[in-house]
Amino acid sequence: MTLAAxxxxxxxxTSNVLIYSSMAVYLLAFFANMAEWIFGSRSKVGRTAAALTxxxxxxxxxxxxxxxxxxxxxxxxxVLERPQVVTRAAAGARDVPDGPGAxxxxxxxxxxxxxxxxLTALGxxxxxxxxxxxxxxxxxxxxxxxxxxxxxxxxxAVGVYxxxxxxxxxxxxxxxxxxxxxxxxxxxxxxVLYTASDQLVPALHSYWLYIHVxxxxxxxxxxxxxxxxxILYLFKDSxxxxxxxxxxxxxxxxxxxxRLPASQSLDKFSYRVNAAVxxxxxxxxxxGAIWAGxxxxxxxxxxxxxxxxxxxxxxYAAYLHARATAGWKGRKAAYLALIAxxxxxxxxxxxxxxxxxxxSYAGV
Amino acid sequence: xSKTTNDRKPAEQESAASAEATELEAASQLSTxxxxxxxxxxxxxxxxxxxRWFWRQLTSMRVALILLFxxxxxxxxxxxxxxxxxxxxxxEDFEKAHTTLSPIYExxxxxxxxxxxxxxxxxxxxxxxxxGCIVPRTWQFVGQLRGRAPAAPKRLTRLPAYATWRTEAAxxxxxxxxxxxxxxxxxxxxxxxxxxxxxxxxxxxxxxxIFHIALIVMLIAFAWGQxxxxxxxxxxxxxxxxxxxTLSMYDDFKSGSLFDTDTDLAxxxxxxxxxxxxxxxxxxxxxxxxxxxxxxxxxxxxxxxDKKTSIEVNKPLEIDGTKVYLNGxxxxxxxxxxxxxxxxxxxxxxxLLPMDSNxxxxxxxxxxxxxxxxxxxxxxxxxxxxxxxxxxxxxxGDMFSQFPALDFPxxxxxxxxxxxxxxxxxxxxxxxxxxxxxxxxxDSKGELLKKRLLPGETMKLPNGAxxxxxxxxxxxxxxxxxxxxxxxxxALTGAVAAIFGLAGSLFIQRRRVWVRAVxxxxxxxxxxMAGLGRSESAKLxxxxxxxxxxxxxxxxxxxxxxxxxxxxPAAEGAEK
Lengths: 364, 576
Ligand code: HEM
What we know:
Oligomer: heterodimer
Helix content of chain B: 25-40%
Structural class of chain A: mainly alpha
Largest sheet of chain A: 2 strands, antiparallel
Order of helices and strands of chain A: HHEEEHHHHHHHH
Bound molecules: protoporphyrin IX containing FE
Strand content of chain B: 25-35%
Largest sheet of chain B: 6 strands, antiparallel
Largest interface: A-B, 89 and 97 residues
């Protein structure tokens, strides 16, 4: 074995250690998230119920109102309050305030929530370095097989979550479901999908591959975040419907649902997330077609992978149409979004494992 | 004016309903999306009525949505059932394995889903619907571009974002200031009555139309490409005569139904100088190819200058709209055949077909003419050839290659003489020997003459019939796929336009802002600003805030008087 090869083996080993370490950190983050939810359950919130049963007319959110300094004629200045912007929900829409988040305003819960975020960020960094060392060990981008695909995928998904947090978006509610599934994803990667590092067959040497696969992973991660939002929307929406029709949901459901954002907010969140990546997903498919054109002499050949990308694309297009069509907004559109994401997942796991096509990579 | 906006007391619900109507009206042109007739009523109008009804249904958003869903559903079976278009051999296997299912599948077109009647029906309907949708929407959009933003609704408080204050500035001045501010922010704005009406974000609609039109462009480009494409294969041995792009030079060829093989083949030629293949030497993936590269010399036109380049798996050579792809390779051992007198009858590099990933190859060596047996009679010779680039070593297994590179080449031959049967008119497989009219050369034991040769070794034919030598220089061959698919450029243009259109459609918000300024009873001007976007727009209140900020500096709040606060409904929203 050459020296270089030995160095690569070392790097690959380092990468494995880092991936396992990140799992340990994520596990701690998972517990911290759980703690946040558990401590938060002590708080009493009843905003949704109140808004829906019309006891306390919670006013719509008002825009921030910075003070405006105005020069006055006599040379002095006066500080004036800027008029406030009042928002109200679109006509006919339910106007329910967002829940306070997992901690439910409980101080200890909030502390654990912050710890969870810090741990998630730490896990992210460790995993990121793990992915990078893996890439260095194989001297190429880390997506030659499903193991590498999985670790990159979860890194990006967590990265998207952290980026949204950094942008001060109200997404802390994503923490628990995200960390849970990241753990599952990594568990699957290190046990079932693990492949020793190796290089690619010539057809996979192309910069279009880098573009195509990196955007595919990114889109998948963002679609995933959108899907989590959609699922929570469906739960919260049923909860609100039940309240609105005079039902009384169980204590556990109330405790959890009350702390989530309003169904409207969740719905908007998942729409925005899905809509934002849809053009990139379109680009991913086109980049893939260009690559296929260079590698196989035809840019579209209804290979199973191509077909399922197409199906996913059309399903998301149907979702976007549904959002714009009377009678299809809301739950029906949400189901379409979930179907579309299921197509994405099948394209990734199902096609790689059950269907053979030209996209069969080196090792599952 | 009611003080609370959310508290829906029964008495207020009525006014909410009418407000909804106002809002709908104000929003009516924010998109050119067709509004849905909620309950489709069936026509009673005879044929024309039905046609019109059908057309309205077809071009409605609901049906577009259903067709989209059907399209994705319909694409599924093609990914799970083997398709003749991609893998005909698999289809045959499937048909053998499922004798009851196959005829049903056959009838339903499930072996060629993407060209089946029902799949075509879905996408053709979808595209008809699309055209029926785009044309009126485009007109409507052009109308909107020519027109101006609609005048302010009566009750601005009902709009999704609202602000108000009282100022000492005159209403006219406030409107003029608002107009300047809005114009600077590139709103299309004008004064209508007591208010300024402004609108921005037309690019959303434009993007949406571009996206949908781009889809049509792409579909036409694909169809065009299918009709006019040509595709063929050619195998070339290193240093051989090469290829010029005429029909007779192809090993196999197929073309779209409108392709004219006489005039549509671009004139060019190329030859293979050298093929380079390298393989993983160690590790679990030993033998996996790392590089495939064909160094070629080509010339454009009928007598262009020679140029050198290399073709790799992901890097086709493009000449005049035709692409040459590298899609296979193998070995072509060079053999020399001599007759009984030692005269060279034939020296050829014979391309053999690889049978496994380590390039164990087989084929046939044919000597058509020039050979005479020891009695001087014309005869043909044939050899079955088996070749391995890396032999395991004698006594260590069979003629199966251990590695794809030329580490230890061995050629195994068996020899026949007689008639190759090439003159019989039936096209012959060059890689197979038809021994029906041939006799075996026998060895001393009376068995078929066979020998394993190392490079440079010779196998003698019995009774002075001559010899065959496995020359040291083993050549490689590469096979190329030569395709010409017009419409590529259009498809790509359409795709790029689709992405940009889509981005415009999804990221740009179309929104309206109204600024109303009227003098109140006490002589102080009341300014009201309101914004309307689509329900998804989160930025609207923020943007209105900036506008309020700007206008407020121009027309600052009047000093508070004890009774003035009642005219400021904004205060109620400040709870949070
Ligand atoms: C070929 C299949 C089609 C695809 C892939 C497709 C895709 C899309 C996508 C992704 C959007 C989202 C953009 C947005 O929300 O603004 C959209 C919007 C839209 N599509 Fe299509 N579409 C197709 C066919 C049609 C047809 C047949 C119609 C007409 C009936 C139509 C009418 C519309 C309209 C009106 C919008 C804008 C909705 C709005 O203003 O929000 N589309 N389409």
